[in-house]
Amino acid sequence: MTEVSSNKMFGGWQKVFSHQSKELKCTMKFGIYLPPSANGGKVPVLYYLSGLTCTEQNFVTKAGAQKYASEHGIILVAPDTSPRGVNIEGEDDSYDFGSGAGFYVNATQDKWKNHYRMYSYITEELPALINEKFPTISDRQSITGHSMGGHGALICTLKNPGKYRSVSAFSPICNPMNCPWGEKAFTGYLGSDKTAWKEYDACELSKTYSGPQLNILIDQGKADNFLTQNQLLPESLVQVCSDKAIPISLRMQEDYDHSYFFIATFIEDHIKHHAKYLKA
Ligand SMILES: N[C@@H](CCC(=O)N[C@@H](CSC=O)C(=O)NCC(=O)O)C(=O)O
């Protein structure tokens, strides 16, 4: 693991590291914010998964989360969104597939399956590295994310009951099987058999979830162009959660769009939400 940058912020340190990933077979970067309390002992961790086109930098530089992580004594980890520089033909052709668009799945299709294993990277390899190298309380981790990363946060939680103490999301892709972004990504990474898609769809996973009680927090801007293009479908997840008695709070925010201005506005609420469970 190599330190790429280090900046003091709100009494703690915002750092970026690179490391060699076994799952993705390439060099990956992640951002990590270490609050002042991490100097004197072990603290909980909140993972943040970014959306399409992002690297670890978007959250680090635009969300304004560090102030609240400093106050609540939580480590923030922001990974990249796909393998990088793996030289697969076509990987840089579009913004919503390939580089910057790993969709947090383990690909099964020949062209992609050797490198595109973001699900295992996020749920296994990266937490193992973070817990080995930083002062974490390893059984106190939570997860959040935005858009494609909101989908990632939801599926990582629903597929691993008890692994994350809490989950939240900003404008998540809630039902990727039934939206254009998800259909394109799942066809490319998982093939055309839709049975395999269900393993990575938050609505489908909620139908069979039987782990510890979740209290899902979602913020969604009403002026989000991707909401009106039916890419996000939060109402489908609310319907399933209501059928299955899974507590979910979908807060529809007047005039807010899909941007990091929206995320920066509500990140304090999300960190407070996670702090409640991480510190219980
Ligand atoms: N380039 C695309 C849209 C790209 C975009 O809006 N990406 C979002 C996430 S969308 C879902 O995963 C994002 O977070 N962008 C980075 C940022 O800093 O805003 C287009 O033009 O339509």
TrEMBL record:
It holds the Pfam family Esterase. The keyword Hydrolase applies. The active site is at 147 (charge relay system), 224 (charge relay system), 258 (charge relay system). SUPFAM superfamilies: alpha/beta-Hydrolases. One of its GO terms (biological process) is formaldehyde catabolic process. GO terms for cellular component: cytosol. It catalyses: S-formylglutathione + H2O = formate + glutathione + H(+). Transmembrane segments: none annotated. It is found in: Cytoplasm. It is an enzyme of class 3 (hydrolase). GO terms for molecular function: carboxylic ester hydrolase activity; S-formylglutathione hydrolase activity. Keywords: Cytoplasm, Hydrolase, Serine esterase. Its EC number is 3.1.2.12. It comes from the Eukaryota. Belongs to the esterase D family. Serine hydrolase involved in the detoxification of formaldehyde. This is S-formylglutathione hydrolase. It comes from Lottia gigantea.
